[in-house]
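Bug #77: duplicate submission created two jobs. Keeping one. Sequence:
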Amino acid sequence: MTLAAVLAALLALGVVARGMGFLLALGLVGAVAMLVSGQPPLSQVGAVLAVVLGVAPGLFLSRYQADSTPEGRQAALPPFLALALMVLLLLAGSRVQAGQFPAGLCVGVAGLVSVACRRGMVWQWAGLLTCAQGVLLSAVMAGRVMAFGAGALGGLVMLVLGALCAHRLLPRRARSLSGGEKTQ
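Kept job's structure:
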């Protein structure tokens, strides 16, 4: 397993803890992991999709105010359970021939934990996109074209539907007026 794949799994935990802020880093590290470990045509397309799934939500959300859904009191147990499950999956994967597969599975599990533990729409959108990146990483590292197609289609659908939900629910940022314009 490459260092980039392990870093992708750890950055997925950052998505659970901090949401959209780690999605860009996860996309970039996931792209590197795909380029290093995959077969050239599949890994190149996967790397592009990972970067798109990491960059596009941040660019889109920069036009809107922050999601103000209250998180409430949460136990710190689910992220630690996700970390424990990830470690077990990585250890189990080191005993198998295809040791790269659990890294993508760990990224997907972290995304599911984010969806299950967070209430805010933006947090859950980040979790779903993390799941999609985990599926893409697993498919590229295992060389499974059909799984890659399903992950790519699912990720792009989640990207579009999440953007539509954000557009509908989040208030837009107020634009500042230039010095020459008068307010009415």
